[in-house]
Structures are given as C-alpha cells and as structure tokens.
Write a structure and sequence with these properties.
CATH class of the largest domain: Alpha Beta
CATH superfamily of the largest domain: P-loop containing nucleotide triphosphate hydrolases
Radius of gyration: 20 Å
CATH topology of the largest domain: Rossmann fold
Strand order of the largest sheet: 3-6-9-1-10
Structural class: alpha/beta
Largest sheet: 5 strands, parallel
Length: 313
Amino acid sequence: MDTIATLEKIRSNIERALVGKREIIDLVLTAVLARGHVLIEDVPGIGKTTLVRALAASLSCSFQRIQFTPDVMPSDVTGFSMVDLQSGELRFKPGAIMNQIILADEINRTSPKTQSCLLEVMQEGQVTVDGNSYTVPKPFVVLATQNPVEHVGTYALPEAQLDRFFIRISLGYPDLHEEMKILERHDTESAPISALESVVSADEVLELQAATDAVACSEKIREYIAMIVGQTRAIKDLSLGASPRAGISLMRGAKAWALLQGRDFVTPDDVLRMVTPVLAHRLLLRPEARLKDMTTERILKNITNMVRIPDEN
C-alpha cells in the first residue's frame, strides 16, 4: 500500500465537504493513525459535525452519531442485557458505541454519569455490561464536540475524561475567500457531504495504524518528549501537569505526524507540532494564573523554548 497516496485520498475527499481546513484534517488523521480520540471545541456552525461526517464517509467504517442530552443514559451508549423471551437467557443489546467511528455530539450536555461510561471504552476499546466485556470493532475513534462559550445546562468534562482525548482541536472561522467558497458549494439543493463516498477500507486504516507503529522514534527524541512532559509538572502556574499517558500520546502523535509527512522516523519538529494539540487540554491552570491571562498554550510555548532541542545526528 502506498501510504502517502492513501492519506492524500482521504484528505482530498474530506476537503470536498470542508473548505480551507487541511491542517485540521491532518490533525484528525494523526489521531486516527495513532488510535486516539479527538475533542473538537468550537462555537456552533463552524463545521465540527461536517468534519466528522466527512471522515466517516471517507472511511469504509461503521458510523454512529450520539446526540448527548441530559436524559441520555449510560446504557444508551454502552448497551444493556435483556431477556430473550424464546430462550429465557440474557442477551447483550449493543449500544451506539459499538461502531467504528463515533460522533459524540455536544458531550458536555450529558450528565457526568453518562460521560464516565466512555472512560473504559476510550481507553480499553471495550465495554463491560453485567460483568461481561464486549470489544468494540476496529478501527475505533471517538470524535466529541462541545461548545466552549455556552455553559448553561452543561457539565464540564473532568480531568480524567479530558486525559482520554488524544488531541483537542478548534476549527476557527473561515476567511473571506473560504467563506465565499463555502457559499458556492452550498448553492445547490444538496450539501457537498451527501455526495461523498468511501475511498479507504477499514483494513487499510488498520494497515496505516500498523505503519505508524513502525515509525522510528530515537532515544534522543524520547528523552526530548520526557523533558517537555516533565517540565509541565514543575511550572508554578499549573496545578496539574501532564501525565505519563500524555507523554505516550505525544510520542504516538509525533510518529503519526511524521508518517503524514512521508517519513519513517520522528524529528524534533514532529514533536513540537504535536505539543499543543496533545498536551494543552490536559493541563490545569491555577486560579492566580488565570488572573494573569496565562494560558496552557502559552506555558507550553515557554517550555518548548526552554527545553534544548536534540541534535538529529
């Protein structure tokens, strides 16, 4: 399989529905390659749902959208056991999560109890119902959306839940040229996404993930990652630094980004590109730091400026 050609097919297909967001598309593909999950945080109408639907349409994988509301129960997500009237035995009825591509829409609108039911499946790739474990199909990616400016009737994701998300991204508003192109594409009865067809099979996605695993990450690069992650735990403006899971995610993200660039080895630039998307949402600012208009992105920038970049030789 030609890895670069396959990835370009996916990119180009998604861009038929999403205008001017190639870098965001690459970050989402990075998460897919690294077997990670994505938190998409932005205001309504930006294209969050379109991005996820376009990804699902491009991959020959099963897709399910879960519209989270306060009355959604954990069993709606994971599934439940019910009595088979003919045999009298308990049978598992799969929930919405038992698909390959999951759109968890407005995840912060559902209760903490329902949010927490995603912890096991996002980390372990399985759900446990009535003492029995059921493995989700592979590849498996959860892409969750939330509106960061609306807080009425919402439940903020706890740190343990945020740490399960591989990256956090924000699409941002389009510029004038991009907005004109969006209007042109939608100047018909049907939306562009309705015409998308799959360009990559589920087996090919698994091959791409295996190719990501094979990308070389030298000892110097691993030390560089460890130093960046370690520094987050020494910053006084942070009450919560990055976990070892965050370090693993940063390494996996750098390997996936390297593959997207057509390389089979990680460079310091790959690590630097993934630092903010992978780490920023996992850090917790102290209240006094917020008063100084400090952000986790700015702290990570200071850390990467301070940590010595390793020689590539």
